[in-house]
Amino acid sequence: MPLRSPIVRAVAALSLTQLIGWGATFWMPAVTGPAMAGELGMALPVVMAGPTVMLIFMAMVSWPLSNIFERYGARPIMAWGSPLGAAGLLVMSIANGPVLYALSWIILGLAGACILTTPAQIAVTEIAGEKARGALGVLILAGGLTSTIMWPLTGFLQAQWGWRATTLLYAALMLLVCTPLHWATLARRPREKFAAKTVTEPAPIDRPRFVLLAMSFAANGFVTWGFALSIIILFETSGLDRASALAAAAFIGVAQWAGRMVDFLGGRRWSSFVTGLAASALFPLSFIVLLATSNFVGAMLFATLYGVASGVTTVTRATLPLQIFPTGAYARASAQLAVPLNLSFAAAPPVFTAVLTSAGPHAALWLAFIISIFAFCALFGLLLLYRRGEGRDGRE
């Protein structure tokens, strides 16, 4: 695809803005949290609850935004959300206690619903059309580098200038880089096209399909985000030393990248159902491996299976709605799916940490195993429902 292609420009721009957006918000406290806690006089767990607040507010406004995305497209919403994100980071940089700190995360949650992941995926489908699945694969593949790039960068900037100046710099990037890129590279929706759409009924979203898809995605998301902050502790409590636990945890990221690459390379040949069900089956298998072993080899095998499953599932969350919902309903369906997803993401870390510390690693693994089986069953049920609907349409 030529470099001058609008699709290439949009995907490249969104890859950069998603890197900045997630790295400057959700992932930043993993580096700056201890310094923030010391200077603001707050306990570290309270500081680390900021991203959870962000996800909750992202969930709260995603459903109301769904019709706006469908009506006006992603471009104006993302262009408006970037300055809002900059405002949230500005408030964080001047915070002197819990009130302003909490307010900053509320603002970032409102901004995140306008610019992070789901809006970017909607923007890609608007500009890529029939080529959307491949373009989404590239965007998600690039997103896998967020922590790899932004954590070292944040650490370097904090060491040089402190966390407040680092936060201000990220606010400037949101305002001066993300805003113009969103405005200049995303699809403009002609007024004639908009007028034509407003006189027709919006494409329907099949509710049974939506519910099954939401349950499957939210269940797997609960598992992956639950383990995101506790996987090293899980390995250590299972018997691994610190170095081995860190090595196995780090390898998950490599396996996730491989999983995203597998779907990217094979996406044109395989249905999103095929890749999604395969990934959902790998999750419970990975937990069985870790339940049955307590050594480094078992941890690495778990990391491989779990990481590949997580990587493929990340792509499936973006591409499967393209297959099961009408094209005109993709934006609305994706924004509405963000509600249960963000709520599960927000609830998972504290729940898994509480189970891990109170009942032990095996209890956390059994909980993950049961939830992953539920996710697989929901997705398989969706496949049966989808095929039944396709067969009925064919007979008609």
What summary fits the major beta sheet?
none
How many separate structural domains? 2
**SSE class:** mainly alpha
Briefly note the CATH topology name of the largest domain. Answer: Growth Hormone, Chain: A
Q: What is the alpha-carbon Rg in Å?
A: 21 Å
Distance between the termini: 39 Å
Coarse shape: globular
Helix content: over 70%
CATH superfamily of the largest domain: MFS general substrate transporter like domains
Give the H and E element order.
HHHHHHHHHHHHHHHHHH
* CATH class annotation of the largest domain: Mainly Alpha
**Number of helical segments with 4 or more residues:** 18
Tell me which CATH architecture of the largest domain applies here.
Answer: Up-down Bundle
What's the number of extended β-strand segments?
0
Beta-strand content estimate: under 5%
Explained architecture:
The protein has 396 residues and is an all-alpha fold. It has two domains: 6-198, MFS general substrate transporter like domains (Growth Hormone, Chain: A), CATH 1.20.1250; 207-395, Growth Hormone, Chain: A. Helices cover 85% and strands 0% of the residues. The chain has 18 helices and no strands. The longest helix has 35 residues, at 361-395. The model is unreliable at 190-199 (pLDDT under 50).
